[in-house]
Amino acid sequence: MKIRFGILPALLLAGATFGAVAQQAEAPQPQLWSPVTHEVVQGDIPEIRGIAADHVLPASSWTVNQAELTGLDTLGNAQFNADLLLFGVFGVAVLFALFVMINGKAKLTHGFSGKLVPRWSKTDVAVHWIGAIACMGLILTGLVMAAGRFYLDPLMMEARWQGLVNAMVAWHNFLAFPFIVGALVMMVKWAPKQMPEACDLAWFKSCGGYLNFGSFKGKHPDAGFANAGEKLWFWCFTLFGLILIGTGLVMMFPSLVSTKDAANLALVLHLVGALIVGAFSVVHIFMATIMSEGGMECMVSGQCDENWAKQHHNLWYDKLSRS
Ligand code: HEM
Fold first, then answer.
1. Which of 48, 55, 221, 254 would staple 43 via disulfide (CB 3.0–4.6 Å)?
2. Any signal peptide, and if so, which residues (predicted)?
3. Is residue 11 part of a domain?
4. Ligand 1 — pocket residues by CB below 6 A?
């Protein structure tokens, strides 16, 4: 029987690299990057790879609940998953670039004052970049693992593709650890700064003052240390980042769960987390580098221009200048 290949085996191999080491001696290895047939090993997650339900699974301690396979099966179209993840990064980047071209940047109304205000500590900046660089690496390696089979494999020799994808898997596994450290510290350390405030709803209603047309133009809605958009990113990142970490660990160490259904679920949730964090990261990067004049300085020196603070975080600036 032919097994279809794509994102799922790619992600699987990422998880299996660590988890399968212990099983190498006794179990046949899945040759995920070449068109092999019918080898399915313990720690592998065949159901959402489109393998027919009547496929005989190898003897293992994993229990398969056939009745529940159909739901997960529908999520198993590898090409669809790959395209969705690609759109989440490149599609969103193109859409956002078009938006910036049409709307223009959010300029500082009174320009730069030259006076700097402390905003993030050196530890905050370091932790942000540890998490951010690892996250960007995970997104890129994950995309090659997910979509490379469809878009890169046909362009290169099989051996070269296998070398590339194996390198991506190794990097994906390696980068997971700095990401976990950076993300967890950001989540715990920054949560108190990201709590909801009364002004958040009004911030959303005026789209943060970032739209340069109609009645939105020239608005500077109130915001504390973090504005409502940053809070949305922070809490999305916290929720889906934790899901990515938890499910990623399950795929690295499959013995953490006791049923194949649980492993399947981990994989599906990993894809959902990757899609949302990937797409939101693109928006976050655009906001920091292109959209918000003076915003990038915050995560380079930890300081921001006084006029940037007044325009984008007036309530925080007022509090700071009173203290
Ligand atoms: C893709 C991985 C990244 C993650 C997970 C991440 C995460 C975060 C989080 C949670 C915050 C705090 C909430 C906020 O202020 O928005 C933040 C702030 C910030 N990030 Fe990132 N970030 C990433 C990449 C980047 C990149 C690539 C840049 C710039 C090139 C960047 C620039 C900034 C800046 C300038 C701030 C501070 C904004 C402010 O002071 O209000 N981030 N990041």
1. 254
2. 1-22
3. no
4. 119, 128, 131-132, 135-136, 186, 190, 226, 230, 233-234, 237, 281, 284-285, 288-289, 295-296, 298-299
Q: How many domains does the chain have?
A: 1
Give the residue whose CA is nearest to atom 23 of ligand 1: 132
Question: Over the stretch 273-296, which tens digit does the pLDDT of each residue have?
Answer: 999 999 999 999 999 999 999 999
Model pLDDT, residue 14:
44
CA distance 41 to 39: 6
Give pLDDT, residue 79: 80
Q: Where are the beta strands (DSSP E) in the chain?
A: 116-118, 303-305
- In a domain, residue 49? The reply is no
Average pLDDT over residues 92-110: 95
Range of the domain at 197: 77-322
Q: Which atom of ligand 1 is nearest to the CA of 300?
A: 35
| 63-73 per-position pLDDT tens digit | 444 444 444 44
What dihedral do alpha carbons 47, 49, 52, 53 form, nearest 10°? 10
Q: Which of 72-76, 126-130, 158-162, 265-269 has the lowest mean pLDDT?
A: 72-76
Residue 31 has a pLDDT of 33
Residue 310 placed within a domain: yes
Q: Which atom of ligand 1 is nearest to the CA of 231?
A: 13
Whole-angstrom distance, CA of residue 277 vs CA of residue 279: 6
Average pLDDT over residues 203-231: 93
**pLDDT tens, position by position, 179-207:** 999 999 999 999 999 999 999 999 999 99
Distance from CA of residue 314 to its chain's centroid? 30
CATH of the domain at 271: 1.20.950.20
Q: List CB contacts of 319: < 8 A, sequence separation 6 or more.
A: 224
Rounded Cα–Cα distance for residues 308 and 209 (Å): 13
On the 0-12 / 13-18 / 19+ scale of CB atoms within 10 A, 219 is: middle
If you measure from the C-alpha of residue 134 to the centroid of ligand 1, how many angstroms do you get, rounded to a whole number? 13
Mutate to test the pocket of ligand 1, among 284, 304, 314 (most ligand atoms within 8 A of CB): 284
